[in-house]
Design goal:
348 residues; alpha+beta; conserved putative lor/sdh protein from methanococcus maripaludis s2 fold; Elongation Factor Tu (Ef-tu), domain 3; OB fold (Dihydrolipoamide Acetyltransferase, E2P); 6-stranded antiparallel beta barrel; 4-stranded antiparallel beta sheet; 19 strands; 26% helix; 36% strand; elongated; RND transporter; efflux transmembrane transporter activity
Length: 348
């Protein structure tokens, strides 16, 4: 009576001890956790750059004649007034040229007087019918040539006298001298820049815009807690060959005692966002490949998305990318990711 029950219990015990086919498979490693964030449109409507205070007019200072510098009366960084003497050349050769020109002038004056006297004498002979009219015309031509030579000699003498005046180089306007390179005893040629005269009555901010950015028409300059309005005056026609940035000059509309030539200031330019851009933390940028990219999380997998970096700050970057409002990207640890990798999200 108990034997069938006994055999049934043994069969059940053997089935319970047999290995489970589902449990025999090796457990898969769990997907790593990543910190993600939801991207949002960049809220900043400004482009922040570093600029340098420059003068509106920066004129190279040079002699109009060649010679040896006899004296230098100014130093770099010195403020000068209009008409102030800056440099002086040795005038000996220039004075000798004046004496030569004066001698030529006297020669032409004598030749002119002789030509006029001879013409008058020939005119008398023609009136008395002692010589022909053709002879008189010859002497009239000689007088015209003497007048032309006298005028040329007079011009040469005027140039020589002007050259003596040019031996003294004076400031054409008030300003500050920069990059003074000339020294007494140095021989310079006509037009060689010896210094730069900066007109500090009209100041500007010089900035370099990233490639692809249009120059905003206005903005502000921040210095020592002050905000000074600036207006675009000039934009370079081509990019700098080394940095590939574009130089722009902004006119500073008001003055401040804190402004000084050459000082570095913060410039904030009004930059309306013409297309969707995003603000992301610097840790979200990955530059392992040929360009910058971020990693977007789609259905538990990460995929790289190329981006264009428009602006960098201490913590965030403003980018342009093929993302939509609300897209989720990895905020940290992007250097460990591979395309299609399974991840678990930890929202930031």
């Amino acid at each position: 009576m108990h034997r069938p029950l006994f055999f049934m219990a043994i069969v059940l015990l053997m089935l319970g001890c047999s290995p489970d086919n589902g449990a025999s498979n090796a457990p898969q490693s769990a997907a790593p956790w990543v910190r993600t964030l939801v991207v949002s449109n960049a809220s900043s409507a400004f482009l922040k750059l570093s600029g340098t205070v420059k003068g509106r007019y920066e004129t190279p200072v040079a002699f109009q004649v060649s010679g040896r510098i006899l004296e230098r009366y100014v130093d770099a960084g010195q403020r000068v007034e209009a008409g102030q003497l800056l440099f002086q050349l040795d005038p000996r050769d220039l004075l000798a040229s004046v004496r030569v020109a004066e001698a030529d002038m006297k020669t032409t004056e004598a030749a002119l007087a002789i030509a006029r006297s001879e013409l008058n004498r020939q005119q008398t002979l023609v009136d008395g019918q002692f010589v022909s009219r053709q002879t008189l015309e010859r002497y009239e031509l000689t007088l015209r040539e003497a007048i032309s030579r006298h005028q040329a000699a007079n011009a040469v003498l005027e140039q020589a006298r002007n050259a003596v005046d040019y031996a003294e180089l004076r400031a054409e306007k008030a300003g500050i001298l920069n990059a003074v390179t000339a020294e007494p005893g140095q021989v310079v040629i006509m037009g060689q820049a010896l210094a730069t005269l900066i007109d500090d009555s009209s100041l500007e901010a010089e900035v370099y815009l990233p490639e692809g950015e249009d120059a905003p028409a206005s903005g502000s300059l921040l210095i020592d807690g002050e905000s000074l309005a600036i207006t675009l005056r000039e934009m370079a026609a081509s990019a700098d060959p080394d940095s590939r940035s574009w130089r722009a000059r902004y006119r500073i509309e008001s003055r401040s005692d804190a402004l000084s030539l050459g000082s570095v200031v913060q410039v904030r330019l009004d930059q309306p966002l013409q297309e969707t851009t995003f603000s992301v933390p610097l840790g979200a940028l990955d530059e392992r490949s040929q360009g910058a990219q971020v990693w977007q999380v789609v259905e538990g997998q990460v995929q790289p998305v190329p981006v264009e970096v428009l602006e960098l700050s201490q913590e965030y970057a403003r980018i342009r990318a093929s993302l939509t409002q609300g897209s989720r990207i990895v905020a940290l640890g992007t250097h460990l990711l591979t395309p299609g990798m399974q991840v678990r999200e930890q929202a930031r």
